[in-house]
Structures are given as C-alpha cells and as structure tokens.
C-alpha cells in the first residue's frame, strides 16, 4: 500500500523547468574545469629534445647509467673462459639480453611513477622524454656490444658480422617487444616470462648448441636482423602514433 502511494506521488510530482541560461552556465564552467593544459608533444630539433632530456633527468644520471651499461658489456667479455672461441657468441647474446634490462628498467620506473597520468599535466611530454632516454641508453649499449664484438673477432676466426648479429638481434628484439607490451599495458605481467625464456634459451644454446647458432647466424643472420629492424621500427612508429593521440 505504501509503495502504491509513493508511486502516485512520483507520478504527480512536478519538476520545474531549468532555465536555459543556467544550463549554458554550468556547461561553460565544466568546460573550463576540464580544459587541458597545453602539452608540448613535438620538437622541431633533435638537439632541443636532448637538451630537455638532460635537463629533466640530469646529465649525471645519464652518464652513470651509460657507464654502468658499458661496464656490464665489458664484464661479460672479460669473464669469458679460456676456451671462449665457441662460447663467445652465446656469451655475447646473453650479455646483450642483460643490457636490454638496463634500458627497460626505465620503462618500469616511469610506469610505476604514473607516467601516463603526468602526460596530460606536464609542461613537457614525459613519454617523449622516456623514448629519447631509451634510445640514448640503447645507443650506449650498442657501443658496448660493438666493442665486445670487435675484440672477439680480433682474437678468433668468427666473422665480425656473425658476432654483431648475435649481440644486436636479442638486444633489439627484447627491447622492441618490451616497448610493444608497454604500449598495451602488459609489460609488468609478462616481463619475467619473456626474459626468463630468453635467458634460459641462450644459456641452453651456449651449453649444447653454439655451433648450430653460429651456423644459423652465418646463413640467415642478415635476414633475421632485417626482420628485427623492421619490427623495431614498427614499434617505435606505433609508440609515437599513440603519443599523438594522448
């Protein structure tokens, strides 16, 4: 009975019309509250982007991380056993995989600190700074891999290109795959799985099949390296495209 009475009251309830001016005023105020700050997504100069990168992250931090990356690369080479003629390729592949961890740590650190939330309110673009920092550390890591590859090639009869393929392919592939997962918010979930399988596979390769790996790289290394470059280029392009729509 009470429910019926309440229903009758609702049916007879008169709601006054809201003045149109009040509606316009509310919408105007909401738009002002929701208006985004201008975010600088593009840079006309690469040097200007690098200057902002050094200003935001500090040149000491870049130099320290770059130095540690090179030390890891050199340590991998110095720790090679006496009979490293065959093991050097596997060690180089494993070392380059470890170097990629130094770069992807930046992805995790920025993700944990709320990089995507800062993107909308920051006067500069944190996502762009992250990409530049990854590229900078990646370039330093490439230099470390190149030093190791040249050093080994001078002391063995393994072709320099084979050594470069063994170092660059895992490094590029793991970094591109991590950045690809980061764009789809899946990087933290599968990080340990990806690097666990990669490191485990390279260790098994070193113990049981280094000769097969060298032969594979000598025969198909160029095609595989080209495919990895195309995939890495696509990931970078997709990352930039997504930033345009943030």
From TrEMBL:
The lineage of its organism: Bacteria, Bacillati, Bacillota, Clostridia, Eubacteriales. It comes from Clostridium innocuum. The keyword Transmembrane helix applies. Keywords: Membrane, Transmembrane, Transmembrane helix. This is Uncharacterized protein. The chain crosses the membrane at residues 58-78, 90-109, 130-152, 158-183, 190-214, 220-237.
